[in-house]
Specification:
This protein is an alpha/beta fold and 352 residues long. The protein has 14 helices and eight strands. Helix 1 crosses helix 4, helix 8 runs parallel beside helix 10 and helix 12 packs parallel to helix 13. The protein starts with 12 loop residues before the first helix and ends in a 12-residue tail after the last helix.
Length: 352
Protein backbone atom coordinates (compact mmCIF):
# COMPACT_ATOMS: atom_id res chain seq x y z
CA UNK A 1 0.00 0.00 0.00
CA UNK A 2 1.15 3.52 -0.65
CA UNK A 3 2.02 4.79 2.64
CA UNK A 4 37.14 25.40 -19.28
CA UNK A 5 39.44 22.80 -20.23
CA UNK A 6 39.90 20.19 -22.91
CA UNK A 7 40.33 16.49 -22.36
CA UNK A 8 43.52 14.91 -21.21
CA UNK A 9 46.11 13.79 -23.70
CA UNK A 10 45.20 10.84 -25.82
CA UNK A 11 47.79 8.70 -24.05
CA UNK A 12 45.65 8.65 -20.89
CA UNK A 13 42.37 8.07 -22.65
CA UNK A 14 42.43 4.25 -22.50
CA UNK A 15 42.70 4.37 -18.71
CA UNK A 16 39.63 6.55 -18.37
CA UNK A 17 37.80 4.44 -20.90
CA UNK A 18 38.65 1.23 -19.06
CA UNK A 19 37.31 2.63 -15.79
CA UNK A 20 33.95 3.45 -17.29
CA UNK A 21 33.73 0.15 -19.12
CA UNK A 22 34.50 -1.62 -15.84
CA UNK A 23 31.66 0.30 -14.19
CA UNK A 24 29.23 -0.71 -16.89
CA UNK A 25 30.29 -4.33 -16.71
CA UNK A 26 29.98 -4.71 -12.94
CA UNK A 27 27.06 -5.25 -10.58
CA UNK A 28 23.88 -3.31 -11.17
CA UNK A 29 25.34 -1.28 -14.04
CA UNK A 30 25.62 -4.40 -16.20
CA UNK A 31 21.83 -4.40 -16.49
CA UNK A 32 21.91 -0.88 -17.88
CA UNK A 33 23.16 -2.28 -21.20
CA UNK A 34 19.57 -3.03 -22.18
CA UNK A 35 18.96 -1.58 -25.63
CA UNK A 36 17.42 1.88 -25.80
CA UNK A 37 14.94 0.46 -28.28
CA UNK A 38 13.92 -2.33 -25.94
CA UNK A 39 10.41 -3.51 -26.57
CA UNK A 40 7.90 -4.11 -23.85
CA UNK A 41 4.25 -4.94 -23.49
CA UNK A 42 2.12 -1.81 -23.60
CA UNK A 43 -0.33 -1.08 -20.85
CA UNK A 44 -3.75 -2.14 -22.12
CA UNK A 45 -5.44 -0.79 -19.03
CA UNK A 46 -8.32 -2.39 -17.16
CA UNK A 47 -11.77 -1.59 -15.86
CA UNK A 48 -11.98 1.31 -13.42
CA UNK A 49 -12.03 0.04 -9.84
CA UNK A 50 -13.56 2.80 -7.76
CA UNK A 51 -13.40 0.73 -4.58
CA UNK A 52 -9.65 0.39 -4.94
CA UNK A 53 -9.17 4.09 -5.67
CA UNK A 54 -11.33 5.22 -2.75
CA UNK A 55 -9.36 3.22 -0.18
CA UNK A 56 -5.93 4.51 -1.24
CA UNK A 57 -4.05 6.28 1.54
CA UNK A 58 -0.62 7.95 1.70
CA UNK A 59 1.38 8.45 4.88
CA UNK A 60 2.82 11.92 4.24
CA UNK A 61 5.28 11.83 7.14
CA UNK A 62 6.68 8.48 6.04
CA UNK A 63 6.94 9.70 2.44
CA UNK A 64 8.84 12.80 3.53
CA UNK A 65 11.26 10.72 5.63
CA UNK A 66 11.91 8.36 2.73
CA UNK A 67 12.46 11.30 0.37
CA UNK A 68 14.87 12.93 2.82
CA UNK A 69 16.86 9.70 3.09
CA UNK A 70 17.39 9.70 -0.67
CA UNK A 71 18.60 13.31 -0.65
CA UNK A 72 21.01 12.69 2.23
CA UNK A 73 22.42 9.40 1.02
CA UNK A 74 26.00 9.10 -0.18
CA UNK A 75 25.92 9.10 -3.96
CA UNK A 76 27.69 6.78 -6.36
CA UNK A 77 31.20 8.04 -7.02
CA UNK A 78 33.94 8.18 -9.65
CA UNK A 79 33.57 5.76 -12.58
CA UNK A 80 30.28 4.47 -11.22
CA UNK A 81 28.85 7.96 -11.10
CA UNK A 82 30.03 8.54 -14.69
CA UNK A 83 28.24 5.36 -15.75
CA UNK A 84 25.03 6.41 -14.01
CA UNK A 85 25.19 9.87 -15.57
CA UNK A 86 25.58 8.34 -19.02
CA UNK A 87 22.48 6.28 -18.25
CA UNK A 88 20.64 9.45 -17.20
CA UNK A 89 21.43 10.99 -20.60
CA UNK A 90 19.80 8.02 -22.29
CA UNK A 91 16.64 8.70 -20.29
CA UNK A 92 16.30 12.43 -20.99
CA UNK A 93 13.34 13.76 -22.96
CA UNK A 94 15.23 16.78 -24.32
CA UNK A 95 12.59 19.47 -24.25
CA UNK A 96 11.84 22.91 -25.62
CA UNK A 97 8.39 24.31 -24.86
CA UNK A 98 8.84 28.05 -25.06
CA UNK A 99 6.64 30.59 -26.76
CA UNK A 100 9.77 31.77 -28.58
CA UNK A 101 10.58 28.37 -30.10
CA UNK A 102 11.68 28.52 -33.74
CA UNK A 103 12.34 25.80 -36.31
CA UNK A 104 16.05 26.61 -36.13
CA UNK A 105 16.13 26.14 -32.36
CA UNK A 106 14.32 22.83 -32.61
CA UNK A 107 16.65 21.61 -35.33
CA UNK A 108 19.69 22.45 -33.18
CA UNK A 109 18.07 20.71 -30.22
CA UNK A 110 17.58 17.58 -32.30
CA UNK A 111 21.22 17.61 -33.38
CA UNK A 112 22.15 17.80 -29.70
CA UNK A 113 19.80 14.92 -28.96
CA UNK A 114 21.61 12.75 -31.49
CA UNK A 115 25.01 13.78 -30.12
CA UNK A 116 24.52 14.83 -26.49
CA UNK A 117 28.23 14.81 -25.58
CA UNK A 118 31.23 16.28 -27.37
CA UNK A 119 33.26 13.85 -29.39
CA UNK A 120 36.35 14.14 -27.18
CA UNK A 121 34.29 13.23 -24.10
CA UNK A 122 32.69 10.27 -25.85
CA UNK A 123 36.14 9.02 -26.87
CA UNK A 124 37.53 9.44 -23.36
CA UNK A 125 34.57 7.59 -21.87
CA UNK A 126 34.88 4.75 -24.35
CA UNK A 127 31.38 5.29 -25.78
CA UNK A 128 30.70 5.00 -29.48
CA UNK A 129 26.96 5.68 -29.57
CA UNK A 130 24.89 7.80 -27.20
CA UNK A 131 21.54 9.52 -27.66
CA UNK A 132 18.86 10.93 -25.42
CA UNK A 133 15.52 9.18 -24.90
CA UNK A 134 13.39 11.52 -27.03
CA UNK A 135 12.86 15.10 -28.14
CA UNK A 136 9.76 16.82 -26.73
CA UNK A 137 8.17 19.76 -28.58
CA UNK A 138 4.91 21.49 -29.39
CA UNK A 139 2.83 20.21 -32.33
CA UNK A 140 4.02 23.00 -34.64
CA UNK A 141 7.64 21.91 -34.14
CA UNK A 142 7.17 18.26 -35.11
CA UNK A 143 8.04 18.96 -38.76
CA UNK A 144 11.39 20.71 -37.98
CA UNK A 145 12.25 17.87 -35.63
CA UNK A 146 11.51 15.31 -38.34
CA UNK A 147 13.79 17.10 -40.79
CA UNK A 148 16.74 16.37 -38.50
CA UNK A 149 15.75 13.09 -36.89
CA UNK A 150 14.32 11.51 -40.03
CA UNK A 151 14.86 7.76 -39.90
CA UNK A 152 17.19 7.91 -36.88
CA UNK A 153 14.63 6.12 -34.72
CA UNK A 154 14.84 8.74 -31.99
CA UNK A 155 11.27 9.34 -30.79
CA UNK A 156 9.54 12.68 -31.13
CA UNK A 157 7.18 13.44 -28.27
CA UNK A 158 4.54 16.13 -28.69
CA UNK A 159 2.70 17.82 -25.85
CA UNK A 160 -1.00 17.86 -26.51
CA UNK A 161 -4.57 18.19 -25.20
CA UNK A 162 -4.43 21.92 -24.52
CA UNK A 163 -1.03 21.83 -22.82
CA UNK A 164 -0.37 23.08 -20.19
CA UNK A 165 -3.78 23.88 -18.67
CA UNK A 166 -5.81 21.24 -20.54
CA UNK A 167 -8.95 23.39 -20.56
CA UNK A 168 -9.91 23.18 -24.24
CA UNK A 169 -12.95 21.17 -25.28
CA UNK A 170 -12.54 17.40 -25.36
CA UNK A 171 -13.27 17.36 -29.09
CA UNK A 172 -10.47 19.89 -29.68
CA UNK A 173 -8.03 17.97 -27.50
CA UNK A 174 -8.71 14.64 -29.20
CA UNK A 175 -8.23 16.21 -32.61
CA UNK A 176 -4.94 17.71 -31.43
CA UNK A 177 -3.70 14.24 -30.46
CA UNK A 178 -4.72 12.81 -33.82
CA UNK A 179 -3.01 15.61 -35.75
CA UNK A 180 0.25 15.20 -33.81
CA UNK A 181 0.30 11.45 -34.44
CA UNK A 182 -0.40 12.02 -38.13
CA UNK A 183 2.42 14.61 -38.25
CA UNK A 184 4.94 12.04 -37.01
CA UNK A 185 4.96 12.10 -33.22
CA UNK A 186 5.53 8.62 -31.79
CA UNK A 187 4.87 9.73 -28.21
CA UNK A 188 2.14 12.02 -26.95
CA UNK A 189 2.32 13.84 -23.61
CA UNK A 190 -1.27 14.60 -22.62
CA UNK A 191 -2.46 16.68 -19.67
CA UNK A 192 -5.38 15.65 -17.53
CA UNK A 193 -8.28 17.87 -16.54
CA UNK A 194 -7.34 18.70 -12.97
CA UNK A 195 -10.89 19.48 -11.91
CA UNK A 196 -11.75 15.78 -12.24
CA UNK A 197 -9.20 15.04 -9.51
CA UNK A 198 -10.09 17.98 -7.31
CA UNK A 199 -13.78 17.02 -7.38
CA UNK A 200 -13.14 13.29 -7.04
CA UNK A 201 -14.75 12.48 -10.40
CA UNK A 202 -12.57 9.45 -11.15
CA UNK A 203 -14.95 8.07 -13.77
CA UNK A 204 -14.62 11.28 -15.81
CA UNK A 205 -10.82 11.17 -15.49
CA UNK A 206 -10.78 7.52 -16.56
CA UNK A 207 -13.08 8.12 -19.54
CA UNK A 208 -11.11 11.16 -20.69
CA UNK A 209 -7.76 9.37 -20.45
CA UNK A 210 -9.15 6.32 -22.22
CA UNK A 211 -10.34 8.55 -25.08
CA UNK A 212 -6.85 10.06 -25.36
CA UNK A 213 -5.32 6.58 -25.43
CA UNK A 214 -7.61 5.55 -28.28
CA UNK A 215 -6.72 8.73 -30.20
CA UNK A 216 -3.00 7.99 -29.76
CA UNK A 217 -3.24 4.70 -31.64
CA UNK A 218 0.25 3.20 -31.81
CA UNK A 219 1.86 6.29 -30.27
CA UNK A 220 2.82 5.84 -26.63
CA UNK A 221 0.92 8.05 -24.23
CA UNK A 222 2.47 9.87 -21.27
CA UNK A 223 -0.14 11.24 -18.90
CA UNK A 224 0.80 14.49 -17.14
CA UNK A 225 -0.86 14.78 -13.73
CA UNK A 226 0.32 18.36 -12.97
CA UNK A 227 0.86 17.23 -9.39
CA UNK A 228 1.55 20.75 -8.12
CA UNK A 229 -2.15 21.47 -8.74
CA UNK A 230 -3.51 18.34 -7.04
CA UNK A 231 -3.02 19.49 -3.43
CA UNK A 232 -2.46 16.12 -1.70
CA UNK A 233 -0.41 12.96 -2.20
CA UNK A 234 -3.61 10.92 -1.98
CA UNK A 235 -4.96 12.82 -4.98
CA UNK A 236 -1.67 12.08 -6.78
CA UNK A 237 -2.00 8.37 -5.99
CA UNK A 238 -5.65 8.16 -7.03
CA UNK A 239 -5.08 10.11 -10.26
CA UNK A 240 -2.12 7.83 -11.05
CA UNK A 241 -4.28 4.75 -10.63
CA UNK A 242 -7.19 6.10 -12.70
CA UNK A 243 -4.84 7.02 -15.57
CA UNK A 244 -3.01 3.68 -15.49
CA UNK A 245 -6.31 1.80 -15.47
CA UNK A 246 -7.27 3.85 -18.55
CA UNK A 247 -4.14 2.70 -20.40
CA UNK A 248 -1.43 5.31 -19.78
CA UNK A 249 1.99 4.03 -20.88
CA UNK A 250 3.73 6.56 -18.62
CA UNK A 251 2.62 8.75 -15.78
CA UNK A 252 4.40 12.11 -15.63
CA UNK A 253 4.61 14.55 -12.74
CA UNK A 254 4.28 17.97 -14.31
CA UNK A 255 4.05 20.20 -17.33
CA UNK A 256 6.94 22.28 -15.98
CA UNK A 257 4.62 25.29 -15.98
CA UNK A 258 3.10 24.82 -12.50
CA UNK A 259 4.35 26.65 -9.43
CA UNK A 260 5.56 23.33 -7.98
CA UNK A 261 6.80 20.65 -10.35
CA UNK A 262 8.63 17.36 -9.77
CA UNK A 263 9.51 16.55 -6.15
CA UNK A 264 10.83 13.37 -4.57
CA UNK A 265 7.78 12.80 -2.28
CA UNK A 266 5.46 13.05 -5.28
CA UNK A 267 7.74 10.80 -7.34
CA UNK A 268 7.81 8.25 -4.51
CA UNK A 269 4.02 8.20 -4.39
CA UNK A 270 3.76 7.72 -8.15
CA UNK A 271 6.38 4.98 -8.47
CA UNK A 272 4.72 3.03 -5.67
CA UNK A 273 1.43 3.14 -7.53
CA UNK A 274 3.33 1.85 -10.58
CA UNK A 275 4.72 -1.02 -8.53
CA UNK A 276 1.32 -1.98 -7.16
CA UNK A 277 -0.30 -1.67 -10.58
CA UNK A 278 2.30 -4.02 -12.06
CA UNK A 279 1.70 -6.52 -9.23
CA UNK A 280 -2.08 -6.45 -9.74
CA UNK A 281 -2.27 -6.35 -13.54
CA UNK A 282 1.09 -7.49 -14.94
CA UNK A 283 1.50 -4.26 -16.93
CA UNK A 284 4.63 -2.15 -16.59
CA UNK A 285 4.00 1.59 -16.65
CA UNK A 286 6.80 4.12 -17.06
CA UNK A 287 7.54 7.18 -14.95
CA UNK A 288 8.64 10.65 -16.00
CA UNK A 289 9.59 13.44 -13.59
CA UNK A 290 9.54 16.83 -15.29
CA UNK A 291 10.03 20.43 -14.28
CA UNK A 292 12.93 21.60 -12.16
CA UNK A 293 15.17 18.57 -12.73
CA UNK A 294 18.21 20.57 -13.78
CA UNK A 295 21.22 19.09 -11.94
CA UNK A 296 23.19 15.88 -12.26
CA UNK A 297 22.65 15.31 -8.53
CA UNK A 298 18.88 15.42 -8.98
CA UNK A 299 19.06 12.98 -11.90
CA UNK A 300 21.03 10.54 -9.73
CA UNK A 301 18.42 10.82 -6.99
CA UNK A 302 15.65 9.88 -9.40
CA UNK A 303 17.68 6.98 -10.81
CA UNK A 304 18.28 5.77 -7.26
CA UNK A 305 14.58 6.03 -6.50
CA UNK A 306 13.72 3.95 -9.58
CA UNK A 307 16.26 1.27 -8.71
CA UNK A 308 15.25 0.93 -5.08
CA UNK A 309 11.49 1.12 -5.51
CA UNK A 310 10.98 -0.57 -8.88
CA UNK A 311 14.20 -2.35 -9.84
CA UNK A 312 16.90 -2.03 -12.46
CA UNK A 313 14.59 -2.54 -15.45
CA UNK A 314 12.82 0.72 -14.59
CA UNK A 315 16.13 2.59 -15.01
CA UNK A 316 15.88 2.06 -18.77
CA UNK A 317 14.49 4.65 -21.23
CA UNK A 318 11.52 2.49 -22.20
CA UNK A 319 10.26 2.82 -18.61
CA UNK A 320 11.95 5.97 -17.29
CA UNK A 321 12.36 9.45 -18.74
CA UNK A 322 13.39 12.80 -17.31
CA UNK A 323 11.74 15.81 -18.89
CA UNK A 324 14.43 18.48 -18.99
CA UNK A 325 16.13 21.18 -21.01
CA UNK A 326 19.12 22.38 -18.95
CA UNK A 327 19.90 19.07 -17.21
CA UNK A 328 22.11 17.87 -20.05
CA UNK A 329 24.42 20.88 -19.57
CA UNK A 330 25.18 19.98 -15.97
CA UNK A 331 25.64 16.28 -16.71
CA UNK A 332 28.09 17.15 -19.50
CA UNK A 333 30.04 19.37 -17.09
CA UNK A 334 30.21 16.60 -14.50
CA UNK A 335 31.43 14.10 -17.08
CA UNK A 336 34.08 16.55 -18.29
CA UNK A 337 35.22 16.87 -14.69
CA UNK A 338 35.49 13.09 -14.45
CA UNK A 339 37.56 12.95 -17.63
CA UNK A 340 39.84 15.98 -17.03
CA UNK A 341 39.69 16.62 -13.29
CA UNK A 342 38.49 20.18 -13.94
CA UNK A 343 35.10 21.86 -14.19
CA UNK A 344 34.45 23.87 -17.32
CA UNK A 345 32.25 26.94 -17.64
CA UNK A 346 28.60 26.19 -18.36
CA UNK A 347 28.71 28.20 -21.60
CA UNK A 348 31.09 25.57 -23.03
CA UNK A 349 28.15 23.18 -22.97
CA UNK A 350 25.47 25.56 -24.11
CA UNK A 351 22.10 24.26 -25.25
CA UNK A 352 20.46 25.57 -28.44
Amino acid sequence: MIHARGCRAAATTPIVSDLVITAFESGIVRAMKTSQSATFRRNDGCALDLDWISQLRVNRNASDRRAASLAARRSVKKEYQAAWLVQAIKCIDLTTLGGDDTPGRVERLCLKALRPLRGDLLAALGISDLRVGAVCVYHEMIAPALRVLGSSGLPIAAVSTGFPAGLASLETKLREVELSVAAGASEIDIVITRQHVLTGNWQALYDETRAYRNACGDAHMKTILATGDLLTLENVARASWACMMAGADFIKTSTGKEGVNATIPVALTMVRTIREYAERTGFQVGFKPAGGVSSAKAALQYLTLMKEELGIEWMQPHLFRIGASSLLTDIERQLEHFVTGHYSAAHRHAMP
